[in-house]
């Protein structure tokens, strides 16, 4: 690091002393205000983002290393020390602590005053002509036009899908538009690309997302898909879906009748249902990404400094045998499968009743096993609610309401899940305890144990116990 760069970065910092944050020996935390941070040449510093990955997904900062605050103690060695380190969290409290820790370890650490929230508020207050001076992807305010994504108050993913700088974004958008109009992409060999329309009006979550994914998956790069939907959640879901699958959201707006109109250009390969999940498009710890880095199609695996693959598999443990909880699990599972994620649902104890065939199957059982079988619900049609079941009346009412609201039934959601490669795994140990035999389970169910669950959990970024 040259003395000029170090002096330049130092000049950009605000060295006001806050006695409550100073070390006992008189050392003070170096600070940088949002205004000075906006003008800072980000290539001269290392950016350390302490927020949770979900926060980074919605509002990311280009080139920042993301190490959540609760992991900083074990991953501190992943922060390079060849340049000053600007540390930030959401509101600036955690980053102050980490700045002190880094300073004690010999880093030239600088805290962003007010955190990323204050930085975004500052950017939003900038005059329009200064927007292009900032290269911070999602953090940059968008021009608000009638019918635009910004006026709809949806996540930043819909306002700007890429975390790249504006110059590269315009290039990629132009390339996509060119491909759509001239068919000049590798997959179509110069042929005119597809233009398809998907009518998702009336479908409830996750129906619209699943329908868009199923339609777009087999089509070539360069395909332009137009869809219409009426589900309110689709307004947010489709923006996140495009971001996580690497496809380009061309436009997103809602008309005066409440119909959501979406145009998507397919710009990334989409894995088949059940295939290994794509790597996280954000910058992994220890590897910064510049605005000039070209966007690549999602890869099957990515760099992980802790070892192993960066994966986005999803694992659900269904312990409860309640109808409402099971419906929620399969809605989330189908949504994840539509995003190209590998999904495993592990059924144990009372959750095994969900997998039982509705009709009696003759198998040899002990007296205790037969008693268990008689007392437990056989199949999804016999499941009750976790609350207000009222002797089964509540479950029938929920099914009637779901049908009237055009929400898929549990049986339909389960078929949809298996069609999209979702793994259904029954716990062998629980089956033995409760006297359930494999012959009594519906088709397509695997048998597994604790290692099966742990193997799935270790490649998942989310495991839910229901």
Automatic annotation (TrEMBL):
InterPro entries listed in its UniProt record: DsrE2-like, DsrEFH-like, Rhodanese-like_dom, Rhodanese-like_dom_sf, TusA-like, TusA-like_sf
Basic and acidic residues bias: start-end ranges: 1-18
Domain annotation Rhodanese: ranges: 41-127
Region annotation (Disordered) ranges: 1-20, 129-151, 163-193
PANTHER family (alphabetical): CONSERVED WITHIN P. AEROPHILUM (PTHR34655), PEROXIREDOXIN FAMILY PROTEIN (PTHR34655:SF2)
Protein name (record): Rhodanese domain-containing protein
Lineage: Bacteria, Bacillati, Actinomycetota, Actinomycetes, Bifidobacteriales
